[in-house]
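Feature request disguised as a bug report, sorry. It would help if multi-protein outputs had a clear separator. Right now it looks like this:
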Amino acid sequence: MPHDTSWLLHTSALRFFDLETTGLRPDRGARITEAAVLDHQTTCLYWQRTANRPVAALLDRLLRCFADAVVVGHNLAFDFRFLAYEAERQHRSPFAIRYIDTLSLARAARLDAQLGLPDLALETLARRLVGREQASGWTFHTARGDAAATRAVLWALADRLQIQTLADAGLQRMAWAR
């Protein structure tokens, strides 16, 4: 896993991540229903919850995808809350994830005020920064569609905000521990 925040963003191992859930709070019964992890070009993981595909198997696969990479997502606090909750339920060993949150980048740059946006939702940012035509090719509010949109939004933010390094991109570390 990269430890040096001076590493160049464009040459870093990035994994673009999203998950979908049945609600907003895992502690009130909401559960993960879908997850996707993309790299620069391909799908590394796509998972949907079924009776034969429990979340326990998802956590193992996700952590393998995230190993030696920086996770990129939009509003990752939400996604990580679900991962930590599921890990706790399964008595999993602690893990740490290095990540970049495109929502945090957009907030720090005050893009809503700069661009006159009604909000900083992923779909809003994608349509404005990447373009309506390209954004119309993604199915928003699906794990795969949102991960692809996040990938495009990160590169649009990097160009707009002149982000060169992991530090410029606001690299953070989420550590879950029992």
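(second protein starts here, but nothing in the output says so)
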Amino acid sequence: MEWLDGVHALIGREDGAIAWWQMIVRGLLVFAFGLALIRTAGRRAFGRQTPLDVVLAVLIGSNLSRALTGNAPFLATLVATAALVALYWLAVHAAARWHFFGWLVKGDVVQLARSGKVDRRAMRRTGVSDGDLEEAMRRAGLGTLDQVETAVLERSGKISVAGG
């Protein structure tokens, strides 16, 4: 396979013998590939941060770092990373279609407060502190708990507060 020899001359081999300029070429290729994958996955993959989004980000970072440093076969690693993004794409579209699947991979909202009353059990279960709730209240422009109509922990991990 003559073309593969040409690729190896450009990016080096996976046995650790990568020249400095081959690392630069790998870096440019991995950067372009990663950017293309993120554009394919969509903005929400790195903006909303549901559990599914976090797992994708960690896996992409891990895989692309291996491709960059030569700790794994370059092309096979890029293909595997593309397969993960395809799986992510399928999962987010399945989650949008089927509520149970969405709950399974993204979680659900948790009511933290309603009509000025805090649900302490829900806050303990989700690890939300009074300080976290107060911060969200300030972001919503509310000064006291009795101004809170609803406060929910969103699937993304953010706290949404509405006044009443």
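Even a blank line would do. Unrelated, but nice: The longest helix spans residues 74-97.
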